[in-house]
Amino acid sequence: MNILLVKLSSLGDVVHSLPVVHDILAALPGARIDWVVEKSFAPVLALHPGLRRIIPCEIRRWRKSPLSAVTRQQWNAFKADLRQTEYDAVIDLQGLTKSALVARLARLAPGGKRYALANQTDGSGYEAPTRWVADVAIRVKPHIHAVQRSRELAAQALGYALAPSPDYGLKRHPAQAGRVPHAPEIIANTVAFVHGTSRADKEWPLAHWTALGHRLNAAGYQIALPHGNEKEKSKSLAIARALNESAPGQAIVWPLLPLDALTHELARCAGVIGVDSGVSHIAVALDLPHVQLYNFDTAWRTGPDAAGGRQVSVYAAPSPGVDEVWRAWLGCLETVQEVPGQPSGDLAWPASGAGGR
């Protein structure tokens, strides 16, 4: 059975949809799954072993100059790539006009069908063409977590029952991870600060990051500071300068990394503290101990939902305080029961931060 998933963007939304792949393969072991996604997010999907083919597109860029020769050439190449395979099921997980267009362009096998959402869910974008294009429009309950929305849509489309917990398919194998240049070979005592976000109103104050970093340094952790652009790099450097004033090496600014390498590096950390962003959601998918920060009461829809409290969200307006985030981090540590140095399933890290309790 050939199945095409359509979830083009953004990074967090793509990560939220990853459990659909495991769900389908668990229910239909012979399924062959392809996925259409914006090219910039394809490296994350490439880490999932359950996908047969990733079909990249650049609709965000193409619509800025739709009549240019380059756009026409690349659009035609994308269509040819998309239409290589006949699909028994095309599932539009996004619910927007652009995803409906991609679903419409895909080739169906005899008897194949297109599936999409029949209704908008609370807090999520939705555009009517998604149900106009679909052969089967599926209604889900309106108040639903983003991860569960995609899982339920696919389960209803293909007729299987869902497992209780999502499996994102991203495994923590630190020994196999690519290394950041000049970084220590083992960074299991490192906490990554994911401060970058495309929305200024989701940011956490610089002074808060610095104060939290000092507490983590005192507990024996080094702070890792990833970034995705020059603005985020400047903030990373500012945090690092403040933390390294008293003792060099308390914080390290990672180089600009592609998403696959960044995912590998996050997987080698003791945990992550981050704002509501795509990279922060990758930390959730990796099952890292994680505190996710919210300036808006939207964690019910996009925040971590891990059993046992190893991943939590903290919400306050205008932003959470340092004490609150620190207590949440200590709570995450209390749920980590691995013996130091001993792997547990796909997870393995030393309990080097135990002194921070």
Care to describe what's here?
The chain is α/β, with parallel strands linked by helices and 357 residues long. The chain folds into 2 domains: 2-158, Glycogen Phosphorylase B (Rossmann fold), CATH 3.40.50.2000; 174-356, 3-Layer(aba) Sandwich (Rossmann fold). Helix content is 36%, strand content 18%. It has 14 helices and 12 strands. The protein has helices at 11-17, 19-27, 42-45, 59-62, 69-82, 97-105, 129-133, 146-158, 206-218, 230-244, 259-267, 278-285, 299-302, 322-334, and strands spanning 2-6, 32-38, 53-57, 86-92, 107-117, 136-138, 190-194, 222-225, 251-253, 271-275, 290-294, 311-315. It has a 6-stranded parallel β-sheet, with helices on both faces. Strand 8 (222-225), helix 10 (230-244) and strand 9 (251-253) form a beta-alpha-beta unit. Helix 1 (11-17) runs parallel beside helix 12 (278-285), helix 2 (19-27) packs parallel to helix 8 (146-158) and helix 9 packs across helix 10.
